[in-house]
Amino acid sequence: MQSVTLTNSGTSELTISGLKSSGDFAIDATGTTCSVGLQVAASANCTIAVTFPPTSGGTRSGAVTITDNASTSPQTVALSGEGADFTLAPRTTSETVAPGGTASFDLLVSPEGGFNHAVNLACSGAPQGGTCTLTPNAVTLDGTNRTVVSLKVNTTGNAMMAAGPQNFGRPPSGSLPMTAWLTLLGLLALMAMVKFSPKGWRVRRAAPWATLALVAALFAGYCGGSSTISSTTTSNSTPTGTYTLTVTATFGSLTQTKSGGAESAVIAVAVAPGDSEPGPSKAL
Q1: How does pLDDT run across 135-173, given as a tens digit for each residue?
Q2: Residue 83 to residue 97: CA distance in whole angstroms
Q3: Could you read off the pLDDT of 70-100 as tens digits, one per residue?
Q4: 276: which of 102, 178, 188, 267 lies 20 to 30 Å off by Cα?
Q5: Domain covering 2-83: architecture
Q6: Using 50, 70 and 90 to split pLDDT, how confident is the model at 275?
Q7: How many CB atoms lie within 10 A of CB 120?
Q8: pTM over cut 0.70
Q9: What is residue 282's predicted lDDT score, i.e. its pLDDT?
Q10: Position with higher pLDDT, 159 vs 257
Q11: CA 70 to each of CA 53, 75, 173: distance values in angstroms, whole numbers, following the listed order
Q12: DSSP 8-state secondary structure symbol assigned to residue 187
């Protein structure tokens, strides 16, 4: 806050009829003793308190204008100030990737008017199933040099999953499979040979082994066991389309910057049809 002093250098009373400010300057009623209608005696004075809330960084100019009954009315006091601010701008504003790919951007955070404070950054609007990451997510400016921040926008593609052995178990209900019928016929033939063959003693010696083999064949045919390996594709791919992301840089206590101490940058990421596997990206 600065003060402007109005002095009546004449020999009669000075009556104030108007008092206003312009540019990025404002009259603060708390510290101001001059007012419309006030009569200032000869050789007396009053004070006008001026504040400076710049709407942007850099050199700002304005004035305080006093209207009164003096022959030199209105009196104008020129004012100037340096606004401390920062800007946020992307080097590129759009990129196209295939589902599963990553878009990369560089953001420039630049000080104005000697701004040397910490700025916090945040990203919103990531593609469906994707993420956006800022590195770093906070920077401290030195009042002169700009800082580069990296933005990565990840998308998702289809994933392949291998399934294990399947279809072990009993076949569908209904008639027995052909293998089972053949096995039963083989058992009946073996029993007949044991009973009626002239060399039955030899058949009886081989009967346990033949019976075991036939039972094993019956079990295999009845159960119908099989083993298959298959793969399944799970579809969680980022849908094709254009996604608008907003990166915001904020200095919460900076009251003299536009948008309440915040700057934002808008970026577009287009997800184009392509393979489900991650692929290289290209700039539009």
Answers
A1: 999 999 998 999 999 999 999 987 655 555 555 455 555
A2: 40
A3: 999 999 999 988 777 888 999 999 999 999 9
A4: 267
A5: Sandwich (2.60)
A6: very low
A7: 14
A8: no
A9: 31
A10: 159
A11: 31, 9, 114
A12: H
Which fold, 86-159+235-283?
Answer: Immunoglobulin-like (2.60.40)
CA distances, 127 to each of 130, 163, 193 (Å): 5, 30, 77
DSSP conformation class of 11: S
